[in-house]
Write a structure and sequence with these properties.
There is one protein chain. The chain has nine helices and seven strands, in the order αααβαβαββααβααββ. It has about 210 residues and is α/β, with parallel strands linked by helices. It has a single domain, classed as Vaccinia Virus protein VP39 (Rossmann fold), CATH 3.40.50. Strands 3-2-1-4-5-7-6 form a seven-stranded mixed beta sheet. Helix 4 links the parallel strand 1 and strand 2. The longest helix is centred in the middle third of the chain and has 14 residues. The radius of gyration is 16 Å and the shape is globular. The structure holds S-adenosylmethionine. S-adenosylmethionine binds next to helix 1, strand 2 and helix 6. This is Methyltransferase domain-containing protein.
C-alpha cells in the first residue's frame, strides 16, 4: 500500500469518532454536490471515499427503489461507522466495501460518481484511473472539496494548509484538486465555495 494511503488511514483513525459532528456545517455543500449529479430513478451512483456514509440517505432517495448506491471507503474506522448506519437502516439497494479506491472492483458500472471531500483520492492518479475505467461512458461526475486561495493571497494559504493537514496526506497539493478528473471530462465547470477556500465542480466522463 502507498504510504499516503497508510497516512490517511492513520489520520482517520483519530477523526472517525468525531467526524459526523464536525461535518455537520458542510452538509449543505454535500447536498449541493449531490444535486449536480442530476440523479434519476434507476441510476447507479458511486460514492467515492464514502466516509461514515453521510451521503447514503440522500443518494438512495435520489435513485429510488430501482437504483443502486455503490460506495468505497478505505479507512476501517470510517467504514465501521458507515456499516453501523447501514445496519440501522437496512438499505437493500446499497453495496459498500472497505477498499482503497485504487484497487476497488465495482459490481456495476456507475452512471454517476460523487467525489465529496475526498482530496487524497482526487490526487491519486491510480484511484482516478481505476474508478473512471469502471464508469459508463458519459457518466455524470460531481466533486467538492477544499482548495488553495489564489496565489496572491499569500498567507491565507497557510490557513488552508493547516485546515487540510489533519485530514489529507496530500495537503500541499491544493491548487487545482479537480484537474485529474477534469482531464477525463467534457463540459466541466468549477465554482468557488467557502469564501474561496472550497470548490464545487461537475462534468461528464468523456466516452472512450
Ligand atoms: C473528508 S472524508 C469525506 C467522507 C465523505 N465523502 C463525506 O462527504 O463525508 C475523506 C474520506 O476519504 C477516504 N479516503 C482517503 N483516501 C482514500 C482512498 N485512497 N481510497 C478510499 N478512501 C479513501 C478517507 O478514509 C475518508 O473517509
Amino acid at each position: 500500500m502507498h504510504p499516503d494511503n497508510q497516512l490517511s488511514i492513520a489520520r482517520y483513525r483519530r477523526h472517525a469518532a468525531g467526524y459526523d459532528a464536525s461535518a455537520r456545517r458542510t452538509m449543505a455543500l454535500r447536498l449541493r454536490t449531490i444535486a449536480l449529479l442530476q440523479l434519476r430513478p434507476g441510476d447507479v451512483v458511486l460514492d467515492v471515499g464514502a466516509g461514515t456514509g453521510l451521503s447514503y440517505a440522500p443518494l438512495l432517495q435520489a435513485v429510488g427503489a430501482g437504483g443502486r448506491v455503490l460506495a468505497v471507503e478505505q479507512s476501517p474506522d470510517m467504514f465501521a461507522l458507515a456499516e453501523r448506519r447501514v445496519q440501522q437502516h437496512g438499505w437493500p439497494q446499497l453495496w459498500h466495501i472497505q477498499s482503497a479506491a485504487e484497487d476497488v472492483q465495482l459490481p456495476h458500472a456507475p452512471d454517476a460518481l460523487l467525489f465529496n471531500y475526498v482530496h487524497d483520492i482526487t490526487r491519486s492518479p491510480q484511484a482516478v484511473t481505476n474508478l473512471l475505467r469502471q464508469a459508463r461512458p458519459g457518466a455524470r461526475i460531481a466533486m467538492a472539496g477544499m482548495k488553495f486561495f489564489p496565489w496572491w493571497t499569500g498567507p491565507l494559504n497557510l490557513l488552508a494548509w493547516l485546515k487540510n493537514r489533519p485530514y489529507n496526506a496530500r495537503a500541499t497539493d491544493l491548487w487545482q484538486p479537480w484537474d485529474k478528473v477534469a482531464a477525463r471530462c467534457q463540459d466541466f465547470h468549477v465554482g468557488s465555495t467557502q469564501g474561496g477556500m472550497g470548490y464545487i465542480a461537475h462534468g461528464r466522463l468523456i466516452s472512450p
